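The following block was generated as part of the benchmark described in Methods. Ligand: glutamic acid.
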Amino acid sequence: MTKNIITRFAPSPTGLLHVGNIRTALFNYLYAIKNNGKFILRIDDTDSERSTDEFAEQIVSDLKWLGIKIDKIYKQSERIDIYRKYFNQLVEKGFLYECFETQEELDYKRKRLVARRMPPVYDRASLNLSEEKKNQYISEGRKPYWRFKLSGKKNIFHDLVRGEVSVDTSAQSDPVVVREDGGFLYNLPSVIDDIEMGVTNIIRGEDHVTNSGIQVEMFTSLGKDSPVFGHHPLLVDENGDPFSKRNAALSVKGLKEKNFEPMAINSLNTSIGTSIEINSFQSLKEISEILGIARGSTVRARNVARDVFASIKNLVGGEIEEYTKLQAQSREQALSRMIEDAQKSGADAIVNVRFMTSVISQGAAEVLAY
Ligand code: GLU
């Protein structure tokens, strides 16, 4: 019998969701519905200074607006007791150790290594501190923080998108799991939740590949197998930079306010970077039937602008070379030309092109006000 698939989307409520974030949400959701599985929303709000309830509520309403049905919502801030329990287990098993360096001392060590052209990996100076020394630090007013002891091995895992992936933990600092104020950092609570919630597939951006290599060891330390990983390429803007939460124009909220169609956003966001023609899909179910995460990532998203041009060609029957040429002279002209062509080709195309053009250029807003 096959396992019941459970995927999750785990944003931090520290800003508005943008087109890049929701690509992750969509891939997770599509994977779940394709496999008759479940989709969990996990609000990663352990950073109490930067997280807000307003952003958390906005995330829920954005996902609903996009047509994503959430089976269960969890908030990490309500689960601290669970993390403590696992934390104690790991201390007992010897996977975690107390450290006493101040931030300045760590910075100094890092700078010295970098100056000697060595990787800035933490030297584990606190690993073998005597009880006496620890007590001395504590009496001086230092508070311990905790690190997870990595094996120093190469961890190899299968990735739904990238195939075999190897992460060399000898090139990584032992990750800090608990800060000196007692607050949990990302990696360990994420692993604990994935275990507790029965997550079978972790689909997220390629910026998390190293974290996955580290988390594999955390799963093992807790006596569990890792879920299946899949890391998709990140969506980037026309300059090759990842989208940022500060970019309100490309936030889901911003797109909604500008009257973009949710399915236009979903259609484009999932097909971009693939060899699949961009269509105006009618439902997420329809997309899930033809587009899996593996296909959704065959081409690096860095080529996004090029792909957008290609899809515009497909949609509105314009000439890609012409748009590209035009764009080289004037982006504004290229955009108005696309819109003109889109207008000739009917409503669906217009909705899509409006979205696509805003992906190409944040400065497109004025041109789009037609
Ligand atoms: N809160 C993390 C992020 O937004 C979650 C990463 C994950 O999927 O585990 O990057």
